[in-house]
Design goal:
Layout (H helix, E strand, L loop, with lengths): L1 H5 L6 E6 L4 E8 L2 E9 L11 H27 L10 E7 L3 H18 L3 E5 H7 L15 E6 L4 E8 L2 E7 L5 H11 L7 H8 L22 H17 L3 H32 L3 E5 L6 H14 L2 E3 L11 H12 L18
Parallel strand pairs: 1-4, 4-5, 6-9, 9-10
Antiparallel strand pairs: 1-2, 2-3, 6-7, 7-8
Bound molecules: 5'-O-[(R)-(carboxyoxy)(hydroxy)phosphoryl]adenosine (KG4) and zinc ion.
Zinc ion binds next to helix 4.
Amino acid sequence: MRLLEKNQSDLSTILAIESSCDETAAAICRDGFIFSNVIANQTIHQQWGGVVPELASRAHLQNIVPTVQGALSEAGKKLGQTIQLSDLDAIAFTQSPGLIGSLLVGAQFAKSMALALNIPLIAVHHMQAHVLANLIPGENRQIPSFPFLCLTVSGGHTQIILCTSPNELKVLGETIDDAAGEAFDKSGKLLGLPYPAGPIIDQYAKNGNPQRFKFAEPNIPELGFSFSGLKTSILYFIQDHIKEDPQFIQKNLADLCASIQQTIIDILLKKLKRAATITGVKDICLAGGVSANSGLRAAFQSLGEQQHWRTYIPPFEYCTDNAAMIAITGYYKFLEKDFAPMTVSPSAKAEFT
Ligand code: KG4
Ligand code: ZN
């Protein structure tokens, strides 16, 4: 492999590709620093109220070449020199978990490039990447020390993870049903909001009273989460009120959004606090698409101050699905020479390996 011939194990230019769901993304990481992070959003799913897997795969096929070209040219501009394909030292890609058709597009593209360029291929776990987004260096931004805890909240996962090194992660607790992002999106659907409802609820909640309505919180042991009961509780609550006033949602939208958001935040932070107490860890991070939520960010930071934690939240662009997080994870795997064989296949479901 070219890498071994060069014998410069720490210097690297890595192209990373993310295609696990409905975002086609590419990023360039040089020596552990991110130089570009390009995302092509797929708006086609909005009209269906959720991600349609077949449409996502087709959109990835259309987007992947221009997205990778965009990442190369943006990084070139930042570095002040064109990045040629021959400058790449490795290709990292999201191997799991995700929609299989979507993963296949990114995986095949990454494999083909690695094979053509004769450079190593790095298979990345999407959830590990969300956690390691906290390690992306940036101006005036601290990164956590090991060990750290991470509350990863996305559209597909809700996990509390203990991270003892970039490649050693342990799931301490996770959801037994819906993820926190699904709780936002499904609640939003009940309110008649378009998909994905998370960011819209966030906006309405800014003008609402979070204490106005109360919804049932689950009673799940240890560090587990559950959100399916909340959805049912909101459904019955809304049905009851609409019987009395058909305009109930429209008249109370801001308060409904603020109250739903507050319930989700309370459920998440209660368990995070418990995990910090059990482990004694003081470096605590947020990750995943839901960590873009302004209410969660504020509540997390104020809990951190109260508990004397050192808190970390990745910049907004590294919270929702992106390739910079795949690139930083790829970089740490590159340092360990943790390369994947060309026979590697994507997997819809997989634990950390
Ligand atoms: O991590 P992510 O981009 O994709 C997955 O891997 O799932 O997370 C997407 C989820 C969606 O459920 C979306 O509604 C939610 O993150 N989300 C938000 C916000 N921004 C994105 N939820 C609440 N508030 C937000 N500001
Ligand atoms: Zn994600």
